[in-house]
């Protein structure tokens, strides 16, 4: 198990199809808890990454994205 605490402004990205996730119990102590989720297309992510790398003049290897079975 990997456990960590996010700070204000932190971002975490993970493949929800491949992660078993949970959280420990917490006491709000009057605080506010805000989680925001979104979904992306992995092909679009890879394409945008490569396009940006080319624009910045970076020589990069295309990243492996997905569940390891598509690239």
UniProtKB/TrEMBL annotation:
Residues 2-39 form the TauD/TfdA-like domain. GO terms for molecular function: oxidoreductase activity. It comes from the Eukaryota. InterPro entries: TauD-like_sf (IPR042098), TauD/TfdA-like (IPR003819). Keywords: Oxidoreductase. It holds the Pfam family TauD. This is TauD/TfdA-like domain-containing protein. It comes from Ciona intestinalis.
């Amino acid at each position: 198990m990997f456990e960590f605490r996010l700070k204000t402004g932190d971002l975490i990205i993970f493949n929800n199809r491949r992660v078993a996730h949970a959280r420990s119990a917490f006491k709000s102590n009057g605080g506010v808890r805000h989680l925001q989720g979104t979904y992306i297309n992995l092909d679009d992510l890879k394409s945008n990454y490569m396009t940006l790398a080319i624009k910045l003049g970076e020589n990069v290897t295309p990243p492996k994205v997905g569940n390891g079975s598509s690239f």
